[in-house]
Amino acid sequence: MRVAMCAAVAVLAATIASAAQAPGSACSLLTKEDAAAALGEAVTGPKSNGTPGGPQSCSYSGSGVNSVTLNVIPFTASEATVYKSMCAQKGKQGLTGLGDVTCWYNDKHGELQVAKGTTFFSIELRRNGDTTEAIKAAAKKVYDRMK
How many domains are contained in the chain? Predict the structure, then answer.
């Protein structure tokens, strides 16, 4: 019984680990190297949540409260239309060329929201100082890796 339980836990752990880096997963779109560049320091992670084909997230941690998180959400065509109209009413300072529709969550530039086709993603960057250029660079890499 214990052997079967240990084997089941090992298979589950391997499945979770492979899902974290599976093609098309959030963690395949935002790499550890991308996260370290955005935070300007070494990072730990990734920590992955979600389901294949559904909403997913990928997080990396730096020192203290420093972190970067990518959220990826597939939309239906009608949901994408609603999101794009909401994003059209938000700030777009310096965001040309970063996606079909791109906007800042707010004027602090700690979260960038992007739509590519019917897929939405947001990058949240928590660190000291101005995060504007670092978050834009990370978003560009994610956008370019998306199919």
Answer: 1
Q: Is the pTM of this model over 0.85?
A: no
119-126 and 67-74 strand pairing: antiparallel
Strand pairing report for 111-116 and 101-104: antiparallel
Specify which residues 120 forms β-bridges with: 73, 115
Question: d(Cα 78, Cα 124) in Å, to the nearest integer?
Answer: 25
Backbone angles phi, psi at 73, to 5 degrees: -135, 120
Interval 85-140: pLDDT, tens = 999 889 888 888 787 899 999 888 899 999 999 999 999 999 999 999 999 999 99
Give me the domain span that covers residue 128. 2-145
DSSP E strands in the chain: the ranges are: 44-50, 56-61, 67-74, 101-104, 111-116, 119-126
Instruction: Please say whether the beta carbons of 101 and 87 come within 8 A.
Output: yes
CATH of residue 115's domain is 3.40.1000
